[in-house]
Amino acid sequence: MNIHFKNTTIRINPFVYEPCEDSFLLADAALSLIADSDRVLEVGCGSGLICAVIKNNTQAMITGIDINPHAAECTKENGVDAIRGDMLGCINGKFDMIIFNPPYLPTEDDERTNDWINVALDGGNDGRKLINRFLEEACIHLAENGRILMLVSSFTGIEEVKSRMISLGYHVDEISKERYMFEELLVIAGTMVKKMN
After folding, report:
1. For the whole model, what pTM was predicted?
2. What is the Cα–Cα distance from 158 to 185, expressed in whole angstroms?
């Protein structure tokens, strides 16, 4: 199956999260903020939609990373460098922007399945398990004046995520938001205002 968006055609496979409203909202936000000279990393790149849209519409250097081997391969097949890895622990270097569309659905233990699609959706009991881990790891890999760009859902607790970001030293800006059925999606940018020790 192919998806067409912003001068980009993406082929997806059944073992990878299929891009939907959250992906498109985050891709649009990224395009509005990226400079052509930026070094950009997308954590949890999935099919490679956001990476490929950035590559096809800017001059920025973009790399994807995903724990799902099918996702890393799908991103490569869609024309973007990608590596298989668990969040930011396997990567070196600094980036001007780090993008994350996290697994954010609150998931109870008895709801979990043992497949790659679950990995793309399961945000832990409160929906913030991987978001909190990302926020702690990302600041180490931000270049001076670099920022994170992350999608958050009302299912996850938007104010709780913002509070966590502020407590870690991020300055928080709301970039864009949309309401879909029973859910509000918000793209948040975070810039470090104090360095972590």
Report:
1. 0.88
2. 9
